[in-house]
Design brief:
CATH topology: Double-stranded beta-helix
Radius of gyration: 16 Å
Number of helices: 6
Helix content: 25-40%
Oligomer: single chain
Strand content: 15-25%
CATH class: Alpha Beta
Shape: globular
Length: 167
């Protein structure tokens, strides 16, 4: 378990973020159902470890990791600890203006307003956000490859448009 989850304030934070975390998981269920199921199975297997129970009781997410970035520029990068077919969920929050999510590999610059939710393959697509005016945090939910390996869950497949043709 992450050392940050052992901090006394962590359980309060988990409680306060319960609804937002569950919502991001629900969005993943729509945009990448196979990854949602893969993440859900991994979390269920983590429940078998008694030392994780206190944190997992308040963890409503199928993602097994979250990073909080506060008021910082994020240089263009790729995320190295997941798999190419997995989506990260990014959502910025706060009273700020003119943030832009840059995805140069696909030629996109997206308005990155408070409450926006972006699902992307952070391992495949270089992405970054320059500094902006105001106060901003970004919640980055993702799955760590090593957690899935340790729990023996499948990696999940690439999301394909054919999935939506059968719905």
């Amino acid at each position: 378990m992450s050392a940050s989850l052992k901090h006394p304030g962590a359980h309060l934070w988990l409680s306060e973020m319960f609804e937002a975390s569950a919502l991001l998981s629900a969005i993943l269920r729509v945009i990448h159902p196979a990854l949602y199921e893969c993440g859900r199975e991994t979390i269920q297997r983590l429940h078998q470890h008694a030392e994780l129970q206190p944190a997992l009781e308040k963890w409503p997410s199928v993602f097994n990791a979250v990073t909080i970035l506060s008021n910082r520029e994020t240089p263009l990068h790729r995320d190295n600890h997941s798999r190419p077919q997995w989506y990260d969920m990014l959502t910025p929050v706060g009273p700020y203006q003119q943030a832009v999510l840059d995805l140069p590999g696909v030629g996109l610059k997206l308005a990155y307003e408070s409450g926006t939710v972006v699902g992307l393959s952070g391992k495949v697509l270089r992405h970054g956000v320059k500094a902006c005016d105001g106060e901003r945090i970004c919640l980055a939910y993702y799955m760590r490859d090593k957690v899935h390996e340790r729990m023996g869950t499948e990696a999940g497949q690439w999301m394909k448009h054919q999935h939506y043709e059968n719905v």
